[in-house]
Amino acid sequence: MLVDTHCHLTDPTMSGENLHAVLQRAHDAGVGTIICPTADPADIDAALCIAATHENVFATIGIHPEYAGADAARHLTHAQLHHPRVVGVGEIGLDYHYGADNRMAQIDLFLQQLDIARGAGLPVAIHTREAEDDTAQILKGDVSGVMHCYTSSWDLAKKMLDRGFFFSASGIITFKNSDEIRETFKKIPINRIVVETDGPYCAPVPHRGKPCEPFMVTDTARVLADLHGIPLDELDKILLENVRALYPKIPLS
Ligand SMILES: [Zn+2]
After folding, report:
1. In the chain, fewer beta carbons within 10 Å around the N or the C end?
2. Secondary structure (3-state) at 189
């Protein structure tokens, strides 16, 4: 059984009347558990609702750096953080891809949410893009978590390995031009890797261009198994152990 550790089920391509078919296709492909993160604080209620009404869906709640300026404490309430279906805080982090003019506001929101995660005793799902130095500087190792949809350098990976983090491989590792990311994932110990779709984005080969959804995580897992030279069924077991260690609140049988 595979776990899609990061899929935005609140996206219109998967939510509402599409949700049932999306979850059925995941089930048929052997994707037994799905974790739904939030990026926009407006999606938190919807993510909680999906997680509360589907026994194999869990949520992480957090505010993406794109919404820097949002008041984290107002959006991530005590009741939500301690909700039985909320297993982590994410996605949170830094993104300087579109410029860094709001860098201070992003850092402020990131720090607030790290405090909230520590206070709730929850792991974090980190988004980092073109912000390696600040990310390494801020994540000192007093939180546990995952570098989601990891595409940054081996250099940052080494630092975050030392701090106990997991690394999530998305469909990007299947792309033709992703040799460098594949090299990085080859070097990361297999007991520190999990997989995700990051749906609706980044559909893996051979689904590129389509809205990405949980069943496609199997294509990413296949590439990862090849990279590490282990059979897929063995990889499945290792990934499940890794998810158990990363998100202890999920009751995985
Ligand atoms: Zn995401």
Report:
1. C
2. coil
Q: How confident is the model at residue 15 (pLDDT cuts 50, 70, 90)?
A: very high
Query: What distance in angstroms lies between residue 7's CA and the mean position of ligand 1's atoms?
Result: 7
Compute the distance from residue 247 Cα to the ligand 1 centre, in Å. 17
Task: Say how many Å lie between the CA of residue 169 and the centre of ligand 1.
Answer: 12
Largest CA distance in the chain: 46
Using alpha carbons only, how large is the chain's radius of gyration in Å? Answer: 17
C-alpha of residue 126 to centroid of ligand 1, in Å: 9
The residues pairing with 145 across neighbouring beta strands, listed in sequence order, are 124
Ligand 1 is an ion; its neighbours by CB within 5 Å are 198
pLDDT 10s digits, 113-160: 999 999 999 999 999 999 999 999 999 889 999 999 999 999 999 999
* Structure confidence at residue 12 (pLDDT): 97
Tell me the CA–centroid distance for residue 198 and ligand 1, in Å. 5
| Domain coordinates in residue numbering, the chain | 2-246
Closest by CA position to 107, among listed 129, 75, 86, 135: 135
For residues 87-95, average pLDDT? 98
> How far apart, in whole angstroms, are the C-alpha atoms of residue 221 and residue 75?
34
C-alpha 6 – ligand 1 centre gap (Å): 6
User: Which residue type, as a one-letter code, is found at position 75?
Assistant: H
Which CATH code for domain 2-246?
3.20.20.140
Q: How far apart are CA 146 and CA 243, in angstroms?
A: 10
| C-alpha of residue 26 to centroid of ligand 1, in Å | 18
The model's pTM is 0.97
Which residues are bridge partners to 59 per DSSP?
36, 86
